[in-house]
User: Fold this.
Amino acid sequence: MTKIFIDGSQGTTGLRIYERFENRSDVKLLRIDESKRKDAAERAKLINESDVTFLCLPDDASREAVSLVSNSKTVIIDTSTAHRTESSFAYGFPELDGSFRERIKCSKRIAVPGCYASGFNSLVYPLVKNGIISPDYPLTCYAMSGYTGAGKKGIAQYEDEGRESELDSPRQYALAQQHKHLKEMKAVSSLTRVPFFAPHICDYPCGMVVSIPLFTDMLEKKMSLSDMQEMFASHYQNEQFIKVRELGYSKNMIGSNNFAGRDDMEIEINGNDERILLTSRFDNLGKGASGAAIQCLNIVLGTDEKTGLTLGE
Assistant:
C-alpha cells in the first residue's frame, strides 16, 4: 500500500486531494497532529516516511519541504508555483506530448501546473510545437475563474453574507501584467514573448474558461477554422482527459462553470477563417489543481490515470 502524506492539508487544494482518497484502498494516508503541522521535524519525519508527499503550501514553504527530504525514494508532487519552471522537476501535464508523461512516470520531483497555465498551455503548446505560430507571436489570453481559485481568504470574502456588491460582478485583476503564472506560461510553451494576460475572478465557486484569439494572417501556416480543429484533435488524439470538440459544438455561448466537479478539460475552436477563438474549459480545482495532482500520482504508481477522478462525456 502506497503511503501518502499531504503537507498543507488545510488549504483548498490539500482538502480536495484528501477527498480524492476517500474511496481508495491502494493508499494509506499519513496524518500529522494538528498541533505539529508547522513543526519542521514532524513534517520531515512524515515526508521521509511517505512514498509520495503532496505539497499544498506557499512557495517558500514548498521549497523548505523539498529540502527536508533525506532519502532517495520519496516522490514529491508540488502544487505550488515554486518549482514549475525548475529543470529538476517534471511538469505535470502529461497530455502536452509523450515526453511529459514519460518524465512524470520516471521522476521523483513533479510540479503540478497552475490553473490558468493549464488552460493556456493546452492551447498554445500545440500551436508552437506544430509550427502554427512563432514563439514571438503577440499572444493575448483572457480567462474567467470561479472564486475558489482565490484561496481561503478569497473564498471567505465571496461567501460572506455582508460582502461588497462589487463581488457580484466579474473582476479583472493582475492589472500590472505580473501574474505569477506568466513565467510558467511562457516557459512551458517555449515562447520568447510574454503574453498579455487578463484574468477575471467571478461570483461562482468552481470552473474556468481560458481564451486565446488568433488572427490567421499572422500565423506561420495558412490555417482555416477546420484545419485548426483537425490539428488540435490530432494532437490530443486518444487522450482521456482532454476532449477536442467538433466545430459548432457550442451554439452561442460557452459557460465557465459547466466543468465544476470534473477532472477533465474541453477544447473548442470557434470563429471564422480570419479570426479564430481557442477556448479551454475545466474546473480550476480539478484539472487545474487537485485533479491534475492525483493524475500525476496515478502515472507514478502505474495505475489507471482515471483512478479516483471524475471524467465527463
Remarks:
- Residues 286-301 form the longest helix (16 residues).
- The first strand starts at residue 2 and ends at 7.
- DSSP finds nine helices and 13 strands in the chain.
